[in-house]
Amino acid sequence: AVPDNVTLTLYDMQGHIVRTLKAADPTERGSHRVAWDLRYRTGMLAPPGTYFCALRAGGEMTVRKLVILR
């Protein structure tokens, strides 16, 4: 299998980018784990609320909803 360019981006409810966790590196197909430390790209801790995680790979995109509760 040929590696795909993969981008994993987190967005807030307004559609602003919160953080990009994985960006455009060729990645082998299969299961992978990525951890988010609940911080914005500026280093500020993300407040409780709803966020969206967009995974782009192989010309396709999947979006999942994340909810932070404290």
What does this structure look like?
This protein is an all-beta fold and 70 residues long. The protein is 0% helix and 53% strand. The protein has no helices and four strands. The chain has a four-stranded antiparallel sheet, with no helix packed on it. A hairpin with a 2-residue loop joins strand 3 and strand 4 (60-68). The relative contact order is 0.30.
Which helices and strands occur, and which strands form pairs?
Elements: E1 4-11, E2 17-27, E3 49-57, E4 60-68
Antiparallel strand pairs: 1-2, 1-3, 3-4
Bin the strand percentage.
over 45%
Helix content: under 10%
Query: Helix segment count?
Result: 0
Taking the sheet with the most strands, its summary is: 4 strands, antiparallel
Q: What is the CA-CA span between the terminal residues? A: 41 Å
Short characterization:
This protein has 70 residues and is mainly β.
